[in-house]
Amino acid sequence: MENWLIKQAELAPYRPALVYEGRTWNFRQLKTKVHKIAGKLTHFIGKSVKRAGIIADNTPASYFMILAFQQLGVQPVLLNCRLAFSELERQREDAEVLVVFVDDLLKKRFEQRVKSNTHYYFISELDSITSDSPVIIQSFEDDKIASIMYTSGTTGHPHGVLQTFRNHFFSAVGSVFNLGLQIDDQWLCAVPIFHISGLSIMMRSLIYGTGVILVPHFDPVKITKLLAFKHVSLMSVVPIMLKQLLELYPTEGYNESFRTFLLGGAPIDAATLGSCQKKGISVIQSYGMTETCSQVVALNFADAPSKIGSVGKPLFPVQLRINTGKIGEIEVKAPNLVKGYLNDQAGFNDKLTQDGWFRTGDIGNFDKEGFLFIKGRKDEMFISGGENVFPNEVENVYAKVAGIKEIAVIGIPDKRWGQVPYAFVELQDHSKLDAASLKLYGREKLAHYKVPQAFITVDKLPRTANGKLKHSAVREQFSKVIAKLNKEN
User: 465 pLDDT band (50/70/90 cuts)?
Assistant: First the structure.
């Protein structure tokens, strides 16, 4: 394939490519800016570097840097700025990266680390560097690595995922066949660009020739104003973001160009869906992962009322199957499935079946019409009295309860039943927890063994960068409480 950035600069030179805080770069300007940075990088890191790290934030500087690495054929290793420095160092060492650039917006947090560590530099340090003539990659070979990012690690040790240009291209193809495309589309990006949800927006922009409105972070008030008054066509959200936006939905609605929210992270609950329907807001639910370069399944808004809890049907050209029986592990085969894990090809191969399907680790089932329902993670499931309990299923039921902002369910050892569910609850402002009422509610909606034995109020539940609950971190963060519960049981 031709170099996507160069191609769009030729096809649509004056079309908006990136908008940030009132400033706009068209595709020609974006190419010029990125190639200038590529020249500075060539002078700074040399021409033989295979990969380099970036601790990115949602800024033009990070945006340009990621693209500059790709233009040079250097593999960008996208590191999560929210990780502890020891975690970042483990990933840097695993990726064998000798140079890491840190976004200057993160200077307050990383200043001492950058000063004391020879591997780390702020992006602004390139400002004083003379720009060499960079050797720009003229074509993106299908199997060349376009990006490396580490899995969120919701349940275990993160892996460095090797994402190729082919993977990103077919991810974009599947998305556009589902969502459609308007020549003046602009995708509002409030999700982190170091995560696949944000990076995939960047890649789609280059493939489609459409614009990205980048914001530094999710601010529901600011986002609502953008949706109402600016030319925004689409926006990626997770459930907690969507719920906050619904609370601020303006009486006059969003701008006339707005088409839909693309919802990831978890299925939409009935209450939120009902609110969207009343307001006439289109929401497309989706399911995907880092290993598939974003979504592989999506549910159109028209099907949502009759398929509450489903994430939809496989996108073109994705194949899905359930490995055993009616309910089992979801397996996927698709051209956007990555080629492996960095320094752990054996670990990736262990997730492949003998006939080449990838075991996702998610448990689900198809209904008679082929809609996929996610039960939860295979390694989050626990057994209570011989029955399988999927935390995700229980959490979705309680998400509809007024006053509950977020809920995480885990299994606690029990002498009689093996394990029993306990819930950690993050409440809305000024709400109070009534455990007795919550148990009664659960018994009306769930089998008795799925109803949490206790509801424990916490200030904040741990989440990944894209808003997903980190069940493993729930155990770590509230280990003392859990240890006491284990002892009591």
Answer: low
478 and 338 share one domain: no
Indicate whether 206 and 59 sit together in one domain: yes
Kind of pairing between the strands at 455-457 and 372-377: unpaired
Extract the tokens encoding 158: 């993160």
DSSP of 269-313, one letter per residue? Answer: PHHHHHHHHHHT--EEEEEEEGGGTEEEEEE-TTTGGGSTTEEEE
438 and 339 in a common domain: no
> What domain range is 152 assigned to?
4-374
For residue 225, give every residue at least 6 positions away whose Cβ sits within 8 Å of its Cβ, in sequence order, or none.
none
pLDDT tens across 189-236, in order? 999 999 999 999 999 999 999 999 999 999 999 999 999 999 999 999
421-455 pLDDT per residue, tens: 999 999 988 788 899 999 999 999 888 999 999 99
Shared-domain flag, residues 360 and 401: no
The domain boundary, picked from 327, 345, 374, lies at 374
Cα separation, 86 vs 92, whole angstroms: 10
Number of domain units in the chain: 2
155 and 9 within one domain: yes
| Domain CATH for 262 | 3.40.50.12780
Long-range CB contacts for residues 177-180, cutoff 8 Å, separation at least 24? 177/315, 177/316, 178/284, 178/298, 178/300, 178/315, 178/316, 179/234, 179/259, 179/260, 179/262, 179/284, 180/259
**Is pLDDT above 60 for 156?**
no
CA atoms within 13 A on the CB side of 454: 14
Cβ pair 314, 297 in contact under 8 A: yes
DSSP for 337-401 reads S-SEETT-HHHHHTTB-TTS-EEEEEEEEE-TT--EEEEEETTT-EEETTEEE-HHHHHHHHTTS
Which tokens go with 197? 């949800």
Using alpha carbons, list the distances in angstroms from residue 21 to 60, 82, 213.
10, 23, 9
Q: How many residues in total does the chain contain?
A: 489
- pLDDT > 60? residue 155: no
CATH of the domain at 393: 3.30.300.30
- Write down the pTM of the prediction: 0.85
- Name the domain boundary from 374, 392, 419: 374
First CA to last CA distance, the chain: 60
DSSP state, residue 324: S
